[in-house]
Amino acid sequence: MEIVILPDSAEVGRVAASVIADVVARKPDGVLGLATGSSPLAIYEELARRADAGELDFSRMRGFALDEYVGLDYSHPESYHAVIDRTVTKPLGMNPELVSVPDGLADDIPAACAAYEAAIDAAGGIDVQILGIGANGHIGFNEPTSSLASRTRIKTLTPKTREDNARFFDSPDAVPTHCVTQGLGTILRAHRLVLVAQGERKAEAVAAAVEGPVSASCPASVLQLHEHATVVLDEGAASRLRNADYYRYTWANKPEWQRY
């Protein structure tokens, strides 16, 4: 993995957005993997700024969201259908017909999951997958103990994840108990991965993912198996890394043309 440590969340967003922008510029009809949550918001804000400035055109890009709650109406502001539309599709000027989100309201959830996998394959796979990381090491909604080879499926959310997400709902009890998520095996099939994390609250999970063993106990550690994964951190999220000085040195001495 390539580890990039930056001063603050704004720089995290700028550098991660530059990775995405490079893909869009080279392949304007490519495929983006879209994460929700607070971690990638700085990326989307920077990409929207570049789109508004005429530097990027997302109108032909396809998008596949990582996950969706089960049983939450899509009109709910915290459904990921609504969040993706609000924070990604509209600000970036993407075509809504080209942006897909897992179906958490399907009568046959397993069939809907299989169809989602097939749609990703039909699009030629995901060119660059954006990821955040949970305090317990989850990516997407792949909670600890998830199979490293898993595909899109229904999962039960841990109490910790529901507690972390309660701030988005009227009460903790309003947080759904289940979700549909791309699996770790699905994520590993993306051509490139970009994970961002900010704040000391994520530091332990980041350290486990980057420098710990590959283990289902820390689902994000599966990124160690990918041939082209970039992890972009602020100082807080990097504070538990043993080799932080080496990562800083490597990034500082990398030629500009190789950075993205």
From TrEMBL:
<protein>
    <recommendedName>
        <fullName>Glucosamine-6-phosphate deaminase</fullName>
        <ecNumber>3.5.99.6</ecNumber>
    </recommendedName>
</protein>
<keyword id="KW-0378">Hydrolase</keyword>
<feature type="domain" description="Glucosamine/galactosamine-6-phosphate isomerase">
    <location>
        <begin position="12"/>
        <end position="229"/>
    </location>
</feature>
<feature type="site" description="Part of the allosteric site">
    <location>
        <position position="156"/>
    </location>
</feature>
<dbReference type="InterPro" id="IPR004547">
    <property type="entry name" value="Glucosamine6P_isomerase"/>
</dbReference>
<keyword id="KW-0021">Allosteric enzyme</keyword>
<dbReference type="InterPro" id="IPR018321">
    <property type="entry name" value="Glucosamine6P_isomerase_CS"/>
</dbReference>
<feature type="site" description="Part of the allosteric site">
    <location>
        <position position="153"/>
    </location>
</feature>
<dbReference type="Pfam" id="PF01182">
    <property type="entry name" value="Glucosamine_iso"/>
</dbReference>
<feature type="active site" description="Proton acceptor; for ring-opening step">
    <location>
        <position position="138"/>
    </location>
</feature>
<comment type="pathway">
    <text>Amino-sugar metabolism; N-acetylneuraminate degradation; D-fructose 6-phosphate from N-acetylneuraminate: step 5/5.</text>
</comment>
<feature type="active site" description="For ring-opening step">
    <location>
        <position position="136"/>
    </location>
</feature>
<dbReference type="InterPro" id="IPR006148">
    <property type="entry name" value="Glc/Gal-6P_isomerase"/>
</dbReference>
<feature type="active site" description="Proton acceptor; for enolization step">
    <location>
        <position position="67"/>
    </location>
</feature>
<feature type="active site" description="For ring-opening step">
    <location>
        <position position="143"/>
    </location>
</feature>
<dbReference type="InterPro" id="IPR037171">
    <property type="entry name" value="NagB/RpiA_transferase-like"/>
</dbReference>
<keyword id="KW-0119">Carbohydrate metabolism</keyword>
<feature type="site" description="Part of the allosteric site">
    <location>
        <position position="155"/>
    </location>
</feature>
<feature type="site" description="Part of the allosteric site">
    <location>
        <position position="146"/>
    </location>
</feature>
<comment type="function">
    <text>Catalyzes the reversible isomerization-deamination of glucosamine 6-phosphate (GlcN6P) to form fructose 6-phosphate (Fru6P) and ammonium ion.</text>
</comment>
<comment type="similarity">
    <text>Belongs to the glucosamine/galactosamine-6-phosphate isomerase family. NagB subfamily.</text>
</comment>
